[in-house]
Known about the structure:
Layout lengths: L9 H4 L3 H8 L30 E3 L8 H7 L11 E2 H16 L10 E7 L2 E2 L4 E6 L4 E7 L3 H7 L17 E8 H8 L2 H24 L3 E3 L5 H8 L6 E9 L16
Helix pairs in contact: 3-7, 4-7, 5-8, 6-7
Amino acid sequence: xxxxxxxxxxxxxxxxxxxxxxxxxxxxxxxxxxxxxxxxxxxxxxxxxxxxxxxxxxxxxxxxxxxxxxxxxxxxxxxxxxxxxxxxxxxxxxxxxxxxxxxxxxxxxxxxxxxxxxxxxxxxxxxxxxxxxxxxxxxxxxxxxxxxxxxxxxxxxxxxxxxxxxxxxxxxxxxxxxxxxxxxxxxxxxxxxxxxxxxxxxxxxxxxxxxxxxxxxxxxxxxxxxxxxxxxxxxxxxxxxxxxxxxxxxxxxxxxxxxxxx
Length: 262
């Protein structure tokens, strides 16, 4: 396996990395799902382990039925809750992951994992955490406000118009794809499966945040390698593919498209 993106020589063939990944993940009648796949080594795709990290128990989450989620989902100009508490975080994570899992057991192997940066969550120390859905608990990766590191990793493109900015939001979420785990069972096609899972989880987070009345904005502009380094990921077999800022207040007088009033 390549050690990083810098090892991909795009100049020799004229191809660029996304084209190589896209073409390699296509299913064909000749090659099926095994196209370009290699037999994974022992232990390939093993889940990330945070058993040695300090455990942080979460409160019992509130019940948010799917009908309530859809009815209460807030539009950008309607979100007005600037703060998050520990109970909000517990409900947001639990509800989003239950929606994401559907009828599957929480401990079922997934190609994505959830990390978070708590900047201003009442009742929770600031720092970087991993969320374990099976036990509904956090594991502390790094204590202390890491907003400076998050800010440094953001590109000038920023986030979705009108949404809270990641360094200023009470909570930043990071969905990480475990690509080696994804391709171990499905070949290169597993790369696409990981992207689909990330999209489903992102949508579930948006639904849960809307039901709670908090802002949730996609953050597309970030430096991948720097965010991965912040989370302690290798950047290739484990890599961040979705970032969101959660909990920032929005101006009710803003236009529907999120732009400020005249």
